[in-house]
Amino acid sequence: MTSTAEPWVDAARAAALLAIDPAGLGGATLRAPPGPVRDAWLALLRGLLPPATPWRRLPPGIADSRLLGGLDLAATLQSGRPVAERGLLAEADGGLLLLAMAERLALGTAARLAAALDTGEVAAERDGLTLRAPARITLIALDEGIGPDESPPAALLDRLALRLDLTPIPPSATTALTPTAGQIIAARALLPRILAGPDVLEALCATAAALGIDSLRPPLLALRLARAAAALAGREAVAEEDAALAARLVLGPRATQAPAAPEPEAPPPPPETAEDQPPQPSPEQMGEILLAAVEAAIPAGLLDQLRLAPARTRTPGTSGTRRASPLRGRPIGSRPGELRGGARLALVDTLRAAAPWQRLRGGGSPRLRIAREDIRIRRFQQRSETATLFLVDASGSAALHRLAEAKGAVELLLAECYVRRDRVALLAFRGTGAELLLPPTHSLVRARRSLAALPGGGGTPIASALDGALALADAIQRRGQTPLLVLLTDGRANIARDGRPGRERAMAEALEAARALRAARIAALLVDTSPRPQEAGRSLAAALGGRYIPLPYADAAAISRAVRQG
């Protein structure tokens, strides 16, 4: 049975190695809720770093002017000339940056942090200034996500050597023995002299490839960690146990597949070695040792999942659509403009624009002079969650023609909706009316089950189906969401609203219902499921004001792309 102290020993060892080579390893991701275990790890790391090491906290919603630097407004107004202000990255040079709620970090901010980690400096051109300053930072990303879909941006995860999960560690285990500050100082002095042979890097690269790691950074980060481990042990060359530790801490958490079982081979003859020197493993043998070390550190359940299905590497999307708004929403900066129509003044940005010109405008006067071109208006961004309504023709003609292929197209569309965190609803029509099989939901499993159980046969009541889609779309809009209609049909309506057969009347009512959806500004896509493109489908798409795609000329993947573009 594994001791509860062993995970903490690994976490403490990782903190020690990070303290030995903080800039080289980039940092660490801590997956743990706020609590005594996370606080104990951060306190340990802080105690192992030099006392004068800068320690800064970075909120996830930080503005670029504070992160990168910009115009010092107070000093600029006082002097009448542009005065630069250092940003948070420059302030943390040579120290540690603590990123709270890393799973909520904006992608733009993640890109700026990644650039600082790559170059060791911060460069920006803003507010009429060109800023460049050293920013050799070590980033600690605090990941408080609940599920696997909530994680820091991939650009940061790829650049941070360590990924530590502290959730299974009880607070009582944090009292285990850890390296001392004196050992860290000695290891830091020894680190530049540590040698690593090419066989070590070759074995680490082979291990990364066997684990399905497709980035070149992890093997290099593992090599740096192996050198730090050798320095901590007092060795001047990387040993087998140092490489195994690096593979376990750096490569193991990044595994996306289980390593394939090696094919049995005849053992090679043992090399001739001196009696006083033990034989060194070959790169192939070392690679097998590193894989064994990594497999021993990965939970058995995870290995089973990796063997059954390779892990998805796609980054989850965000839900809904975003649109700029001058009045409300999340602030996204400012723009030049005029104060009319309820627009809100961005006071600080206005002062920033006016400050450099005060000496020219005032002639020494203490009064602040603001011109029309200095006015800056606040910009906001509103998010509206999208609900995709799948309206599937399950009538006899559709079942005869392309119902199975239409189901395949909906399967792909459902997956795309899941990635974007859209809600999905499924309506089917056949016989004399339409039926709501699945109300708007985030559950992809429920949608797939409803789709699989969808039978075929009967008449084609398109008008009733579109009426039901309009009512559902109206309810979705009242909840503040944006509906998107995807209609899969051959367009050959033959059942009127009252349930009576008659193709001419049914088509007229279907076009009338389609025009009502267009008047309600419901975005729509019609997928023609007939064997050959029919005029009925084109006419219905035109009445909807939506895009028309004939299924014979567009497979399921093409339909998926069309929905994303629409």
TrEMBL record:
Residues 255-284, 308-339 are annotated as: Disordered. Residues 261-282 have a biased composition (Pro residues). It comes from the Bacteria. Residues 387-527 form the VWFA domain. Residues 310-324 have a biased composition (Low complexity). NCBIfam families: PRK13406.1. PANTHER family: MAGNESIUM-CHELATASE SUBUNIT CHLD, CHLOROPLASTIC (PTHR43473). This is Magnesium chelatase subunit D.
